[in-house]
Automatic annotation (TrEMBL):
Residue ranges of domain ABC transmembrane type-2 in the record: 17-244
Superkingdom as given in the UniProt entry: Bacteria
Entry annotated with the keyword Ion transport: no
Gene source species: Actinocorallia libanotica
Protein name according to UniProt: Transport permease protein
Length: 244
């Protein structure tokens, strides 16, 4: 896997525009949305926190993750498949799990860098808080990000062309953003919808991040859902993977 990871790192760094987009998009949104006066006031819906304290950076970190997992990542592997790169790799001892694992680790590193930039810029520009339970935040981020990237790898494993991959990914991404409370806060969702959100990986991810911002250790139920998602999507990605 080390050799594959090294090669993939060199290739993705050449496509610096994609990396820059994933990093800059959430940062620009944090800065822009953070200027709205009402969002800088204490809100009872968020336990007295301001929206910009934890909800905004958590949502932007999620947006960057889902953008990477469901548009960028599937496009890369679909391009390899379309150009015959994967077919040539199939003649080597490389196992699909190694290729998919290398992609997951590489994108996880980029996502971690993006999250760090969001937190730092949010703190310096709009006064967002830094997660008070930092170790818990790191655990939640790594587990949730890996689960969402593994979900993206399921799409990447079967998408036939570079054009179709982001289309499939978008069909999944926007419902997940909705369930995470991107447009309607989870607190005002109907009970049935909130239940679906609780088992969607993104709902527990956002809730667990907010808990760590407040200084609390993430709930075991949230960690369990993300762990189950990582195991399920990883297994599906390997099982469904097609070299061509």
């Amino acid at each position: 896997m080390k050799k594959i990871l090294l090669v993939e790192t060199k290739l993705i760094l050449r496509d610096w525009g994609t990396v820059l987009f994933v990093v800059l998009l959430p940062v620009l949104l944090v800065v822009g949305i953070g200027q709205i006066p009402d969002l800088r006031k204490a809100d009872p819906a968020f336990d007295g926190q301001r929206f910009v304290d934890a909800q905004l950076p958590a949502q932007m970190i999620l947006l960057a993750l889902l953008t990477m997992a469901f548009t960028g990542l599937p496009s890369i592997l679909a391009t390899y498949r379309e150009q015959g790169v994967l077919r040539r790799m199939s003649t080597t001892p490389a196992h699909p799990a190694r290729l998919l694992g290398a992609q997951l680790l590489l994108n996880l590193g980029i996502a971690a860098f993006s999250a760090a930039v969001v937190i730092v810029v949010g703190r310096l520009v709009v006064g967002s808080q830094i997660p008070a339970q930092f170790l818990g935040f790191v655990l939640v981020f790594l587990l949730g990000a890996a689960a969402m990237l593994a979900f993206g790898l399921v799409i990447a494993s079967i998408a036939p062309t570079a054009k179709s991959a982001p289309s499939f990914g978008t069909l999944v991404m926007f419902p997940l953003l909705f369930l995470a409370g991107m447009w309607i806060p989870r607190e005002v969702m109907p009970d049935a919808m909130r239940t679906v959100s609780d088992y969607s990986v993104v709902g527990p991810f956002v809730n667990a991040m907010r808990d760590t911002w407040a200084g609390d250790w993430p709930q075991l139920s949230h960690l369990a859902v993300m762990t189950a998602g990582l195991a399920l999507f990883s297994a599906l990605a390997v099982k469904l993977f097609r070299w061509e």
